[in-house]
Amino acid sequence: MSVTLDIRLKRANKVYHEGESVAGIIVLSCKEAMQHHGISLSMEGLVNLQLSSKSVGVFEAFYNSVKPISLISCNIEVAKAGKIPGGKTEIPFEFPLNAKGNKALYETYHGVFINIQYTLRCDLKRSLLAKDLSRSCEFIVHCQPQKVNLGATPVNFTITPDTLQNIRERSLLPRFFIRGHLDNTTCVVSRPLTGEVVVESSDVAIKSVELQLIRVETCGCAEGYARDATEIQNIQIAEGDVCRGLPIPIYMVFPRLFTCPTLETTNFKVEFEVNVVIVLHDDHLITENFPLKLCRV
Amino acid sequence: RNVRSRWRNYDAELKSARLEATSLEFSDSHPLKPISVTDTKARRGTRKGSTSSSSSSSSLAAPDPLSCMLDGTDPLSMFAAETPSTLHVPFDARKKEDEPVGADFEPWSMKRGEILARFTTTEKLSINPGSSAVSEKVRTRLEELDDLEEGSQRELLNLSQQEYAHRIEELNQSLKEAWASDQKVKALKIVIQCSKLLSDTSVIQFYPSKFVLITDILDTFGQLVYDRIWSMCTDPRPLPDSFTVDDVNDTAKETCLNWFFKIASIRELLPRLYVEASILKCSRFLNKSGIQETLPRLTAMIRGIGDPLVAVYTRAYLCRVGMEVAPSLKDSLKRNFFDLLGTFRQISGESVRSQLLTQRVEMPEYLTLYSPAINWILQCSAYRAPEVWTETQRVKNALLLNSVMRAFRPEFVATRAMDFIGMIKDCDEAGFPKHLLFGSLGRCLACADPPESERLTILNEAWKVITKVRSPRDYVNCAEIWVEFTCRNFTKREVNTVLADIIKHMTPDRAFEDAYAQLQSVIRKILAHFHDFSVLFSMERFLPFLDMFQKDGVRVEVCRSIMDVFIKHQLEPTRDPVILNAVMHICKTMHDSVNALTLEDEKRSLSVLIIGFMRVSFGRDFEQQLSFCVEARATFCNLEPVLVHLIHTVNQLAMETRRVMRGNHSRKTAAFVRACAAYSFITIPSLSSIFSRLHLYLLSGQVALGNQCLSQADAFLKAAVSILPEVPRSISVEGKLRSSESFLLDFINNFLATLLVVPDHPEYGVLYLVRGVLNMVQDYTWEDNSDAKVRVYVCAIPLLAAMSQETYLYTIPKMDSNETLYGGDPKFLSEINKMCETLIGQILDHLKSLGREESTRRQGTLAFSLFCVLLAHGDLRNNKLSQLAVNLWNLSHKHGYCETRISVRTLEYMKHQAKQADMSHLSDTVQRLALQSRT
Question: What is one process in the GO biological process aspect for this record (chain A) (predicted)?
Fold first, then answer.
């Protein structure tokens, strides 16, 4: 006696905003009629925080993760104990997406130390002999459009041996002159990061030019706070010894789920940065860092 | 027994037997009328313009109706080609303007094979997966997958080119399999791995081919993704071809978006570019302007590729995709070209130089690697966009200039030929020799004409450079191209000069030996334009040019092609001594190539070509014609069909003389026709085919008779009789061994019919030749169990009957036959009767022996045929003969093999005959003939 349980959201992209209602159907399919002890559906939004082993001790990090913050939580009974007829049964449902109390619904974000996740979970209880069935499904929450001033303020940069910090022997460096600009450091999550980089001159051949997208996660806790920067992705925009003086486009799509509008709350912070990395043929690594402000419009 | 033939009144019989004549109306549509098709072939994109469609095959005085019909397009495909152009002309024209890509755009598929064949290597290749640096999460997932598909990512070293191609094909297959089994991530991974291979430029000579192989995989992938998303939208009905974003459902859009996000996160530049380009078509599902925005972005991203070769091929791929998905977006196509111009200086950069040094590749070879890609980019960007031209005028680089000439339409290049010559002169020659540039220019001019006034200057300028090319190989490659231009636009004088120059360059050190293909092509081009052979052979250097073909096979082939054209275009018989000498020389060359090892087919086709030449005519100068035949016989003695043709020609000549003299030969013409007879008489024995000899003896004998050359006729016929015993029992017909009996019987019957008009020789006995034939038949070793001999006897009886008439059925004008010679002499008649008796005796003996052998069917047939002969020719008033006839009838019906229908009709005929005067006796005979009813 096999039965399958599935949750299907009405929206193909599973994206919802605060105030909207999450609608869909529960699909039950079984070959013959089946007895059950009730079907329930719950919606939950959680922020999971974890302290990195760098900030606190390894074991501490393991045990002492911060308590999750619940953003939304509700539960409804879909069906009372009874019988489902054989074949496919579809049960429609609808939840209003409203935050608990005075809290706000943060945007879905999958990070290393911070996770903001929204799930629907359906449980089907059965008699003692048969196992209970459960199915969960993540849906995505986008925060409300923000009013941000997106004025086109390009950020120019120039990289020469002299502009570099954090080097031991400046005289050993080969000579190079690289300039460029980012079209804007206040970026819309759904639009790519753009700009240009020009290798005007370089004594040593260029091996690669890359864009490194960095997340900076900060968790506050009793002992203070932990701040960690990790790489989300690394996109190569130039390979090999590129033509001198020719503008090479900077273009990077922000990956979904792994990025969200820059977020700052009392307990935690999620921020983003981008590094323009130039690798020379002698494996010199030149990095220029730009903090980004992400937003959704 | 007393056999007598009945008396015949041929005129009366003919009148009574003649059908009533009705006048026929000739309609236009006679099935055998020559088909004349006028050329209305649709103009296709014949850019190479080499095949001139000479298909107006009205078979007027065509040398060979069959080959003429096959020449050019056959009527069916011509009809097919005709339909669209005639029926849909307005529609087509409209469509052409609308469609961004027309038939004149040479598609990628045409280039593919060319590139694969051209760029090969014998060096070892390797497939190096490199370090995949996708984001960590993806990487672990990929590693898990690795375990599933062991081996697909292993580094492969030391592959030969075939193994490499094979391996790539395997990847293509596993891509399809992965897709079919719903392993989309694995499929994507394979595609990424493959495109990564394109950043590897070790074994650089193979790079263009590698590009072709790998982009095939990308094409497959793009199509798979597109089809998948398209199939998600089939509910409720499939998407129309011209669908818009609004027709696409959310799930499909989401899937599509997912692909683009996935690809946007590919770490390395090259795979990201290639894979995104490969699924660019899918942008249609997401938004209207997707392609429009993505193409320029991808174009700009290519600037990030450092290696110029890798970059140029990426551009080529992007142009290919661009032409496919959005051919009207000219800007990014052009952008690609301009960026290419902008980065071209990289080729002379340090990194390229060191790369070439380690791979030990020379600069010119390296540059040729670029040409397929540049050609393609230019072809795309210049397609219906002549404004690109202004930009290209700044080009000072030879390689680029070469591509420019190949990319623009030949008409475009032709009208600016002088500009191009200027640019070629100016440009920097490093690594790319100028003669190649002139070669490309020549190729354009071969299919499109420059302005009339510039032509001579162009030729002079070009030839000035070409003639200075040192290496014979480079020289001839280039010269060969320019011959077409010269032939198209100039007269024999200029062509002659060009030929002289080629001879001058190719003769030292026998350089021509390595250039037969090009030299042959020169000849072909000249022949395609010069059909007037008096002009052709009056070029002084034409025959010396032919002398350069010293290898036998090639030489004969060239001669053949000349003769082909000669036969096709020299329709009027000529007597121009220049042509005759030259063609004779060419034919002799072909003839002299025949040796013991030559195949039959080869001999046959050579013979056909030489016979084509024999259609010369000296008008009324018959003697010269004969002496031409004498010369030809001496020259072509090894080709039997030619000799046969010559004998026919001479026989025809004799008959033509007779016609001109209206049958009254003067002393001079009589001597001439005897000379003709002598020619035939001494030529025939040299033929090996016995039947050719027999037929020609007979024919020549007939011609001699017609020309009142009695002794010559006698000689021919006697010769024919004398070689009869040599006829073998079986002969080879079309490669199969067959019994010669039927051929022999046919010949003898034909021969006997001629003998009616041959007067007896005064010195030999009566019916000397008839006896001769019959004796030969008697002595000939016929096949066992064959009635052939007796059938000849049966056939001889009608001849003897015809000979005994007072006036013969046919005679030769101005020649006395036996009827006049003997004037119905009783001795002559009794001689004939005696012969008939002997023959009938022989036949009856044979019939008896057949009875013994139980071959009753043969006996019946034979008896019936003799009965018919007696009925038709015998005088049945004679009781004995009529009794014999009745017996034969009975014998033929004895065993029931006779066909009743024929028997019935025979009886009806006899009854009908009996009604006529003098024939009433037949009714008695009929009474005695019983019809045998079959049980």
Answer: intracellular protein transport
